[in-house]
Amino acid sequence: MPSFRQFRSFDDSIGDMKRGTVQRRLTLALSKLIVDDWRLLSLRAPHPLGVGSERSIAAALGWHLKGVMERSWDVDCEYSRAGAGAHVDAKRWSEPRAGATGSRRPTVTPDLVVHRRGLPGPEHNLLVLELKKNDESDRTNEDHSVGRGTIESILDIQHQFEYRHAIYLDLALAPGGLKPQWKWVELGWTGDVSSLNFEPVYGDGDCGELIARGRAEEVRRYGAANSSDLASEHASSSRSVVGPTRRLLGSHELEL
Fold first, then answer.
1. Can you give the pLDDT at residue 176?
2. Whole-angstrom Cα distance, residue 208 to residue 127?
3. Theoretical Cys-Cys bridge with 228: which of 44, 86, 112, 249, CB 3.0 to 4.6 Å?
4. Which residues contact 197 (CB under 8 A, 6 or more apart)?
């Protein structure tokens, strides 16, 4: 079973960075986000600000993802440049506003990209990700969603800049926790967007265990009095994130 050091030394060529490998690394990063940054995700936070913004959550996810990627990859949030020197273009997308000739929605930049800055082509553009705190509530609030990324916008960016993987990640945040789900599209896919269905990130019980450990870690760091309503009752279950990560990643266990 490979150690984390061995995993980091794997060849990161296009042949070895297929969906399964990238998916396991993104799952690990998300698991660490839930455990280490639960306070950012909790709707029961003991302050009026509530859950963090999509931008702050994406930045934290990018931080954790950077730790499980080879150093040859750049991990950027809200990245809006492409190319180098005089050939710089924006890695962003806009669409016509419905019913308004010549009027366009605000430009949309992806929440998270894994790439090599300034270099074009699929060998240098690995992953583009759009993150939603709750996709259902976002879609039912038209004003709130103006200028926000959609599955269509992220697929357009994938096609234009040749990202190998496009991920639309919905955390499905709710007062009781979260149930992350995603839509995952490979470069070259030509199907109908309406045929894309959400797939759960975690199996039964795995997400609940991560949430419990996130609440326990919150109590350890902030104290029971300054933690979310349900955190203190889970404090005794605090353990390293490696436990569920081993089960979630199967044969590609990471020993942190």
1. 75
2. 27
3. 44
4. 183
Cα dihedral sign for 85, 89, 90, 91?
Answer: negative
pTM for this structure? 0.77
| CB of 65 closer than 8 Å to CB of 251 | no
Per-residue tokens: 255: 């020993």
15-37 average pLDDT score: 90
**Alpha-carbon gap, residue 64 to 209, rounded angstroms:** 19
> Distance (Å, rounded) from C-alpha 124 to C-alpha 43?
37
Q: Are 7 and 254 in contact (CB under 8 A)?
A: yes
- Whole-number average pLDDT of the chain: 76
Tell me the CA distances in angstroms from 231 to 49, 57, 214, 218, 235, one per residue in order. Answer: 17, 20, 8, 7, 7
Query: What gap in Å lies between CA 227 and CA 35, rounded to an integer?
Result: 14
Token readout for 145 is 């969603």
Contact criterion met (CB below 8 Å) for 2 and 252: yes
Is the separation of the CB atoms in 123 and 14 below 8 Å? yes
- Give the model's pLDDT for residue 248: 55
List, in order, residues 6 or more apart from 133 with CB less than 8 Å away: 51, 54, 57, 171, 173
Write b or e for each residue in 119-139: b if 16 or more Cβ atoms lie within 10 A of its Cβ, otherwise e: ebeeebbbbbbbbbbbbeebe
